Amino acid sequence: QVQLVESGGGLVQTGGSLRLSCAASGRTFSSLAVRWFRQAPGKERELVAGITWPYNKLLYSDSVKGRFTISRDNAKNMAYLQMNSLQPDDTAVYYCNTDDGWGQGTQVTVSS
């Protein structure tokens, strides 16, 4: 089973950028799809971006397309979410996910 630990969240102003990281350990990370979800207060958890396996197709929600970029470095057992042009609506806890489970989440807060 893969263990996931997110980092890189924080407080940023509107229009700013953050890069989230997801460190994986345990079973082979490279043979898993990886996804980023987010959950804002009072809202359901939603899929933000994903990389499929084995074809590494990149997927984005309409709300972040063109602003966020998902990537992975299998040699380092890492996944990333580069977030640009952040808006207050992007405020949420962001979670890394594979078919094996979830990380604990990292808070992203965008001030207006």
In short:
With 112 residues, this protein is an all-beta fold. It has strands at 2-7, 10-13, 18-26, 34-39, 46-51, 58-60, 68-73, 78-83, 92-98, 101-102, 106-111.
What features would you highlight for this structure?
mainly beta; 112 residues; four-stranded antiparallel beta sheet; globular
Protein model, in words:
This protein is mostly beta strands and 112 residues long. Helix content is 0%, strand content 54%. It has strands at 2-7, 10-13, 18-26, 34-39, 46-51, 58-60, 68-73, 78-83, 92-98, 101-102, 106-111. The chain is globular.
Q: How would you characterize the largest beta sheet?
A: 7 strands, mixed
Structural class: mainly beta
* Integer-rounded radius of gyration: 13 Å
Strand content: over 45%
Helices, by number, come to 0
Question: Quick check: average pLDDT?
Answer: 95
**How much helical structure, as a percent, in the residues?**
under 10%
Distance between the termini: 40 Å
